[in-house]
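Final report, results section. Input specification for complex C-07:
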Amino acid sequence: MHSFGYRANSLLTFAVTILAFMCAIVSFSFSNQTPSAQIQILNINWFQKQPHGNDEVSLTLNITADLQSLFTWNTKQVFAFVAAEYKTSKNSLNQVSLWDAIIPEKEHAKFWIQISNKYRFIDQGYNLRRKDFNLTLHWHVMPKTGKMFADKIVMSGYSLPDAYR
Amino acid sequence: MGYIGETIDSIKSIQIRQLLTQAISLGMIVTSALIIWKALMCVTGSESPVVVVLSGSMEPGFKRGDILFLHMSKDPIRAGEIVVFNVDGRDIPIVHRVIKVHERENTGEVDVLTKGDNNYGDDRLLYAEGQQWLHRHHIMGRAVGFLPYVGWVTIIMTEKPIIKYILIGALGLLVITSKD
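Structure output:
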């Protein structure tokens, strides 16, 4: 009962249990989060119907964002991405990711970037002419340990031209 | 002669009782571990509530050896979620992020495209021959939480099975030789 092995064993079990408890509790700490973002479409580079029948468009986007308030001591990285969301007659919801980035530190979380879409904006069909869509900036906070959480800012009012170019 | 026979009998009976007690306590430990596992499966609604990250395709977010907690609900699959899916014909599940979603109006069926954060291209190369999209039945769960480094135990035991045997042998020895 009082041997070294027994004492070491119960001490270790207790320490591991406390550590697991702390890792779980960490998920419930929320800080004041006030992220902000703005996206502008600078240019429609081209807009065509592909040989297999689907519409594709290439855009140049100007993305400004401040995600610094999402970083806490438990944040390993923030994964941010911009998705275009729209509705067609066949599909009630389409979400197409256009650009993403991994933000490893708070200093990099306030940024301004001008790029063309990293991933191809292809529809299932040829419904994109004169289509209104939302651009949403999503972020996914990945912790050093514990629960991950995600949220987004929806910006609406963007639309594609009537004709191919 | 009778005295020797008596002592031999008493020694044998003590050993048998001790052995049985130890076997039963071992069985209890294994059974309670199984109960906890099955209960986790019920609570999270997923066939494998905990997975170990095996590749570096989601770095630096998830490194090899991390453990992911999964949860599956009827909520629709949306872009940005980290999902675990099985490709037909492969038995190792893959943990990647959803980058494209096309959801049908009437049926609610959904076409999903995934990509590992650290990969250059999307996962179409990983899907089965001719498959362009994932569907709901491929997806086993969403990653909701994670613990770093703890999964290395499983990786080591799978890749070097000799360590598994040594561990089980040592545990067995400990159980047999312990007096309480």
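Residues 32-157 of chain A form a domain with the Immunoglobulin-like fold (CATH 2.60.40). The longest helix of chain A spans residues 4-25. This concludes the modelling results for the funded period.
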